[in-house]
Amino acid sequence: MFKSIKESQITISELMLPSHSNFSGKIHGGYILNLMDQIAFACASKHSRNYCVTASVNKVDFLNPIDVGELVTLKASVNYTGRTSMVIGVRVESENIQTGETKHCNSSYFTMVAKDENGKNAPVPGIILDSEQSIRRFSRSITRQEQAKKRSNSFKASEFKIDDYIELLKGHNTKVEL
After folding, report:
1. Fewer CB near the last or first residue (10 Å), C or N of the chain?
2. Residue-wise pLDDT tens digits, 109-132
3. How many Å apart are CA 174 and CA 165, to the nearest integer?
4. 3-state SS, residue 48
5. DSSP state of 74
6. Does the predicted model carry a pTM greater than 0.85?
7. How many degrees, rounded to 5, is the angle at CA 68 between CA 62 and CA 69?
8. If the chain, 178 residues long, is cut into consecutive pieces of 10 residues, what is the mean pLDDT of each piece?
9. CA neighbours within 13 Å on the CB side: how many for 26?
10. Are residues 22 and 66 in contact, defined by beta-carbon separation less than 8 angstroms?
């Protein structure tokens, strides 16, 4: 079974209140991460028609701060489907409601796993790739997964070779005392 990407896309907006801020009047990154996880869950659950759990979050860079009083909009879309997992792309934008100025605040990728009523991994529908953008996003997810596997294997304690990395440390704020 395959579904169109549009069938599962979700957008939410929320006004940022003082209770969401830190002492400098900027919105807590943790609060934004919570909203991102919620929308990723909703998008994945809508696509799979199952309860979903967060398996991983790939790189969250906070590009621009969000101020109290701004309207934050989060957009979620299925970028990749595996057998039981999905990569949900989440984009966060803020808008100054007085000036209309918008800022891209961050984007991230949530890997979500569908669960059945017994808590076992459940198969998910595939997605229909109907644009160059959807093919790019799907391909990017495959590449990101391959890179993650390489990263975790090269730094396993049993595989790590100090001589391969000792030169890398030079010029960094560190002192090696072996």
Report:
1. C
2. 999 999 999 999 999 999 999 999
3. 13
4. helix
5. E
6. yes
7. 120
8. 97 97 94 98 98 94 96 98 98 97 97 97 97 96 87 78 88 88
9. 9
10. no
Q: Are 77 and 43 in contact (CB under 8 A)?
A: yes
The radius of gyration of the chain from alpha carbons, rounded to an integer in Å, stands at 20
Largest CA distance in the chain: 58
Instruction: Find where tokens 């900027």 sit.
Output: 26
CA distance 93 to 72: 6
Cα separation, 60 vs 48, in Å, equals: 24
How far apart (Å, rounded) are the C-alpha atoms in residues 56 and 45?
A: 16
As given in the structure block, the two tokens for residue 171 are 């010029």
Report the chain's terminal Cα–Cα distance, integer Å: 57
- The string of DSSP codes covering 84-131 is SEEEEEEEEEEE-TTT--EEEEEEEEEEEEEE-TTS-B----EEE--S
What does the pLDDT look like over 138-149, one tens digit per residue? 999 999 988 887
